[in-house]
Amino acid sequence: MRYQHWIPLAACAICAPAFSAQYLNAEQAQKLIFPEATAFRPQDVALSLPQMQQVEKLAGLAARSVNWRVVGAYNGDKLLGFMVLDDVIGKFELISYAVGLNPDATVRQIEILTYRESHGGEVRLPAWRRQFTGKSAQTGGLTVGDGIANISGATLSCTHLTDGVRRIAAVAQVALKK
């Protein structure tokens, strides 16, 4: 007698592919954030312990990392600003994003590079991302509910991205501001 084994449909749910969408790579993001740039130069940014403490005080969050992925944008010899690459957890998965900063450490623009969650992708909408423009760690307004609107169904993505941008704005204030 032959036996047939059936796998319950619910067991196949663990085999389902994860959702992920890559919208931009780092090079595309830097050209989008700084279209007038003629050169991009990677910069080593390693925070000292006192700088990490300053970042924590400004952001109200742990500095999280000593080393930051930073690219300087230039038009000839003129510094246009910086792009900082980072990842934050959405609800379960990482969200990769880039923050464009002006030389005075204000936010120029943010771009979502890769969004891996099945819900909450509305954080990629231009209207939501524009809320960050012109804000800095010192001026405030970089928290959900105080300068940044929440998106229903994307609360964790909104909160974690906003926290990440606030942390980067503090890093810019402490280590990048010219």
UniProtKB/TrEMBL annotation:
The keyword Protein biosynthesis does not apply. Keywords: Signal. GO terms for cellular component: membrane. Residues 1-20 form the signal peptide. Residues 90-172 form the FMN-binding domain. One of its GO terms (molecular function) is FMN binding. This is FMN-binding protein. It comes from Rugamonas aquatica.
